[in-house]
Amino acid sequence: CINPHHTAMANKPATPPSSQGCQIIHFLPSHHDYLQATTPPLFPLPLPRRRPAPPPPPPPPPPRQQALLRRRRRRGLPPSDLLASVQSVASAASVLASIVLVHESGHFVAATSRGIHVSQFSIGFGPALASFRLGAVEYALRAIPLGGYVGFPDDDPESGFAPDDPDLLRNRPVPDRLLVVSAGVIANLIFAFLIIYAQAVTVGVPVQALLSGVLVPDVVPGSAAARSGLLAGDVILAVPGAAPDPSVPALVDLIKSSPNKKVLLKVSRAGPAAGDKQQFLDLTVVPDTSVDGTGRIGVQLSPNYRATRVHPRNASEATVLAVREFRALGGAVLDGLRQTFLNFSQTAEKVSGPVAIIAVGAEVARSSADGLFQFAAIINLNLAAINLLPLPALDGGTLALILLEAARGGQKIPREIERRIMSSGILLVLMVSMFLIVRDTLNLDFIKQNM
């Protein structure tokens, strides 16, 4: 993001997955007193909680075995597990670093292609671990890997540029400044599409095929469904009195209208519960009567989807698949962001900072390497969406100020007012970021196990 006329660097919120997603923005104070474009790709991201409630604990082992387990815990993870954990965390962190690099490169390329003076390109914040100078630009890798920034010498008195230099960012026409400010978001959108395209041509795009019947994901113990012999994972293929291929709403309506009446279910069962063979059963269930007088059998019902992968046969098919997946993920990200703001009291717990995002990414990397494609795409899309919000210290806030200037006929907003607006935004984002980092760190599994 572009943070004009302020002595601060912003690190961006990043995902997921998803969805994504948070998304959290991190802003760290800087000692540089000039205009900077910063990339906070770790942001309040509405990510799904990583695992359901655990099952009841098994009975405790004998005392001697308990002592052995305690000694093993003190020694830490076995070398193979430790290596796998380190590799998965490194994979997630690399994804985030690449997203930061792409975002900042968008700002940098847009500025230099228009002949605008740039003084710094940094990945990370704080003291430089490594740096070099190429022409007038200093490139640096810094110690705190929570974002990055592109520095402009507009407010640096030691830059040697005259205040009215036409190639300073603040002196450029509105279209040039709009391009530079929005280029980070554009770069992330392009990067997200390329990631999805790469997924399509390598491992395929995941799709859900709708099969016949209604799936029973869960059965409440002791319920009418459990008493009838219905099991989680069963598929209800037909019900007398309903359509040949019943939908979830039709089946729910039939059950509600049949309290204390026998309902025959034609069920398909497969997997371990059926001895690894597919079985077709006729089960009779008598719905209980709920408090409102309708029938209920105590099950969760859902459409019968099966996850598959589509592998394109040529570049044209890969492009079509990538466009479709890009639109689907983008829509999911925007919907998640909308739900976050409309139902903030219910969704606040799902807003994740960089610690939680890396933890989710590491879990994705451990479960399936190709899952990193979706994780990276979702984080890119989340970052783009968050940065377009018209909030101070974000790209969207800077765009709003530039558009306001254009609406005023080119009359610039007083620098002091602009500085105060950005300062308030940076302070707010810094407070939110620190809160999320602390909260997400305390929620890490290995922290909980040792507290």
From TrEMBL:
Residues 41-64 have a biased composition (Pro residues). Its main location: membrane. The keyword Hydrolase applies. One of its GO terms (biological process) is proteolysis. It holds the Pfam family PDZ_6. It comes from the Eukaryota. Residues 39-66 are annotated as: Disordered. Residues 203-270 form the PDZ domain. SUPFAM superfamilies: PDZ domain-like. GO terms for cellular component: membrane. Keywords: Hydrolase, Membrane, Metalloprotease, Protease, Transmembrane, Transmembrane helix, Zinc. It is a multi-pass membrane protein. It is found in: Membrane. GO terms for molecular function: metalloendopeptidase activity. Its cofactor is Zn(2+). The chain crosses the membrane at residues 178-198, 421-438. PANTHER family: MEMBRANE METALLOPROTEASE ARASP2, CHLOROPLASTIC-RELATED, REGULATOR OF SIGMA-E PROTEASE RSEP. Belongs to the peptidase M50A family. This is PDZ domain-containing protein. It comes from Aegilops tauschii subsp. strangulata.
